[in-house]
Design brief:
Amino acid/polyamine transporter I; two-stranded antiparallel sheet; 2 domains; alpha/beta; Rossmann fold; about 5% strand; 7-stranded mixed β-sheet; about 675 residues; 28 helices
Length: about 675
């Protein structure tokens, strides 16, 4: 049996760059507002510091991509040292993807300017729809991501030009008073809170398995333009934000030198002070709290005024933390073109960045599926997570990847809170990747490079440790996921040891029949390719081959719709029951008819290309395909394989299409020839 794992290296930096930007660049859409919330006019200093860290991480990942040209990232880097460490690292990455999906979809509808009451239901529906599209294996989702990333780049460029006056004013408003008034430990903690700006860099390591050779060059061309754009525009827009006249509780951002995090605490304290002494202990001025409608109605006049002031303060803060880029777009455009055009441009920017965030949600969902698949392939999770549907999507992992973010946003929709859940998974996964690469002496790294990776990894470790200590909710979330993953791993390993069951591939049934086939290809005989499933299709092809004394090839292409496959992780014939039955049925019927038969099993991202390639490579003069039974909607999303093959079929090859449910009748001599292209 011919078995191939097709991993075409056709990803160039011009395509990988926008894909990386679509993941890494979206962090700007909420990091800028959060930085100003925590540090006000000192936020520019923080953004400069996080920019330097991003550039250092970018440099590190150029070497990581070079060392792992067949697909890298935390799972690969850590697994070379310890399977347990790989589970911890990948679970931290998984927690980051979960929160990326949750925060991105919530933020998308903030950028769309949807009323608060509609954000949650629309977010849930969107995640379900994203899951449904990906269940069909739609390649159009990737094209959509690319288009939106390019449009977002264009809108950002226009915004950068419009923001020049505010950028200049923002430079003059930089303040260092914050660092004089704030303890160094608190200043450090606030820096760790915005390290979620690093989110997305892992994506580039997962692309290397598809990058054109040499991978090191393509990776550099992918990483550096994106990192420079993200860091540069973060600084421009961060400075512009500090110069806006956007008002929060009567104070414009340009005049606000006390961080809103502190101002909100003061506003909450003012409200709590109006309550009876016995009730004040129930509420904290350090964290948001809600009052029931019944309790609000019982407030007296002074209490109600304080409560309304607090609600207004929180609402106005949410406007620039939830949609900072929209606020910047509208005010800078209004300054340059007038209020009416400013409103229009703000809406355009909001829609563009909202779509970019939905694209990031889609990327995060499929990244989760990939992590589940990788862990299932290595027996770290149940094998059910590797089961593929017709379109090559691990459907159980996809269901989990849809349900978990939905549960998260049902529990919490506040962006600040979601960001705090998010940051440990991001920094933890990157820390594991960098330190694993520094420790691994088998990697080809120069002494200076290895030392730099050690220094960077330890610095990232200090960030992760700080987050773990100071943000218990983030630690609880990521820690719970890690504990669950390690618990499942322990139970599974113990179960394998206790049962003593062999883990070898089965040697009976369809698989044994396929393995026992002796491949014999007579170059002087005709050759027919069967690219259709079902007994009737097999009977038809075998009858045609027997009449022509031809060699019959049957190809089963298992589509791949996971993002970070590595060699050895692709679906295998040993575990692909549908492929075994399809090829085995043809093999059994061919043996009974005395027809020379060659089964082919292929895993690939492109089904039509594989069918065409194998048909031409083996010199087949006839190709038999089944008529699609999928819905029109599914064919529009994923593409019609039969039509695509027909359009690109070389001249001289006959293509026959027939319905799988049509029984085969013995053909009279001379029949069975299709239309020759």
């Amino acid at each position: 049996m011919l078995v191939t794992e097709s991993r075409p290296r056709n990803l160039r930096w011009v395509h990988a760059g926008p894909l990386l930007y679509g993941d890494w660049g979206t962090s700007r859409l909420y990091v800028l507002g959060l930085a100003f919330l925590y540090t006000a006019h000192a936020s520019v200093v923080y953004l400069a510091a996080i920019g330097l860290l991003m550039l250092a991480v970018s440099w590190a990942y150029t070497h990581i991509c070079r060392c792992f040209p067949d697909g890298g990232g935390v799972y690969t880097a850590a697994r070379q040292l310890s399977p347990t460490l790989s589970v911890i690292g990948s679970t931290l990455l998984l927690s980051g993807y979960i929160m990326t999906a949750a925060i991105s979809v919530i933020e998308a509808f903030h950028y769309f300017h949807v009323p608060d009451g509609w954000v949650l239901p629309l977010s849930v529906v969107s995640i379900v729809l994203i899951g449904g599209v990906n269940y069909l294996g739609a390649k159009s989702a990737g094209k959509f991501a690319l288009i939106i990333a390019l449009v977002a780049l264009g809108v950002s460029a226009v915004m950068a030009v419009l923001a020049i006056p505010y950028f200049i004013k923002g430079v003059g408003s930089i303040s260092f008073e914050y660092f004089h008034e704030t303890a160094p430990t608190h200043a450090w903690v606030n820096f760790t809170k915005i390290c979620l700006a690093l989110a997305g860099v892992e994506a580039v390591a997962n692309m290397t398995g598809l990058m054109k050779e040499p991978v090191s060059r393509e990776a550099k061309k992918t990483i550096w333009p994106v990192s420079i754009e993200v860091v540069g525009l973060n600084m421009i827009f961060g400075l512009a934000l500090t110069a806006l006249t956007f008002s929060v509780l009567g104070t414009a951002l340009v005049d606000m030198h006390t961080p809103d995090e502190i101002r909100l605490q003061e506003t909450r304290a003012e409200f709590v002070a109006t309550l009876p002494a016995e009730e004040q202990s129930r509420y904290s001025h350090e964290a948001p709290f809600e009052l029931s409608r019944e309790r609000v109605e019982l407030l007296n006049e002074s209490q109600r005024e304080a409560w309304d002031r607090l609600e207004l303060h929180e609402e106005e803060v949410e406007q620039y933390t939830n949609a900072s880029m929209r606020v910047i777009a509208q005010e800078t455009a209004s300054n340059a073109m007038g209020a009416e055009l400013g409103m229009i441009f703000g809406n355009i920017a909001g829609i563009t960045f909202g779509l970019l965030l939905l694209s990031a949600t889609n990327t995060a969902v499929m990244a989760m599926v990939s992590v589940f698949f990788a862990m299932g392939s290595d027996n770290e999770l149940p094998k059910a997570f590797t089961k593929l549907n017709y379109s090559g999507v691990p459907w159980i992992g996809l269901i989990a990847s849809v349900i978990i973010p939905i549960i998260v946003i049902l529990v919490e929709q506040d962006v600040t809170m979601l960001a705090s859940l998010y940051v440990l998974g991001v920094t933890g996964a990157i820390t594991v990747t960098v330190l694993s690469s520094a420790i691994n002496k088998q990697l080809e790294l120069g002494p200076k490079t290895r030392i730099f990776l050690w220094v960077l990894g330890l610095f990232l470790f200090s960030i992760s440790l700080t987050i773990a200590v100071t943000q218990p909710i983030s630690t609880a979330f990521s820690g719970t996921l890690v504990a669950l993953a390690l618990g499942v791993r322990t139970v599974r390993n113990k179960a394998v040891i206790d049962t003593g069951e062999a883990l070898e591939a089965p040697t009976t049934g369809w698989l044994k029949l396929l393995r026992d086939i002796e491949i014999k290809i007579n170059p002087d005989k005709p050759k027919i390719m069967l690219a259709a499933r079902g007994r009737y299709q097999s009977e038809y092809a075998i009858d045609l081959a027997k009449r022509r004394e031809a060699t019959l090839f049957a190809i089963f292409v298992r589509p791949i719709r996971v993002m970070d496959l590595r060699p050895g992780q692709a679906p295998r014939i040993e575990t692909d029951e549908a492929a075994q039955e399809s090829l085995g049925t043809t093999a059994m019927l061919a043996k009974e008819a005395g027809v020379n038969f060659v089964p082919i099993y292929v895993t690939s991202q492109e089904v039509p290309e594989e069918i065409l390639d194998h048909t031409v490579t083996y010199g087949c003069d006839t190709l038999i395909m089944g008529k699609s039974r999928r819905s029109v909607f599914s064919r529009k999303l994923e593409g019609d394989v039969v039509s695509e093959v027909s359009r690109n079929l070389p001249e001289g090859i006959t293509m026959i299409t027939r319905a799988a449910e049509t029984p085969h009748a013995i053909m009279p001599p001379g029949m069975g020839r299709g239309i020759t292209k």
